[in-house]
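Reading a protein record of the kind used here takes only a little practice. The record below shows the convention in full:
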Amino acid sequence: MSLPRLSIDELIATIKRSNLPTILVEGKSDASIYRWIEDSLGTFNGNIIPCGGRDVVFELYRRRNEFKESKVLFLADKDMWLFTALPGEYDDIIWTNGYSIENDLFSGGYSIECLFDKDEKKEFDKTLKSISKWFAFEVEKFIKGEQPQFYHPSRMLGINLELREEFLESISYSEPNADLVEDIQKNYKVKLRGKTLLALYAYMLSNPRRKSKYGKDNVIELCLKNGVEKSKLNDIVSLIKIRLSNWYISKGAAVSRA
């Protein structure tokens, strides 16, 4: 049974009680990735706290003066702002390089696609083309000020690995800009929504025809245990270390002056 989610006031109280620097992140669904980041900080001893959503992270950021005596860093996914611009009001937040924390895990490190055989690679490429068209449509909705919606690949794809007509009708689909589709398809490890890409990997690797099958947790574990030191996650770790190092230096200077 999952633990109840802390309220914002309870999170603030937790931050104030902590003797360690705190790194606030979005959710628990990415717990293993955040745990790897926390372990990678080593002697910097940052304590990562999942807040239960990006809106909570942003609200805590706006209320950061209430715990200004504590050292707190904020880490958030760029999400759709990857395609527009990051809001200036959140300029002190540490942002992912790609769309989300999963994208940074998949970028530059272990390629889960090495598990595909030739036929699976062809199917993946065809599926990716279809998914990129749908996602470009959702990006354009966001740019126009509308709320994007997200779906599992199994709902979107037909037997031919193209977008199902009934699905397209249900979302009032219209053809997105071809250049945007191409950009997403070409740079999918960075620009395709990370949880969708993760679901797509698991969708491909759990096919009934396969002898060995991999779910989402398996995909993440494989990436975290193979070549993760080359992934974009290390950029996040390096930036956190720099900020914590500066804080420890300033704290030491303040103690010496006292």
Summary: The domain at 8-106+231-257 is CATH 3.40.50 (Rossmann fold). The beta strands are 22-25, 47-50, 72-76, 94-95.
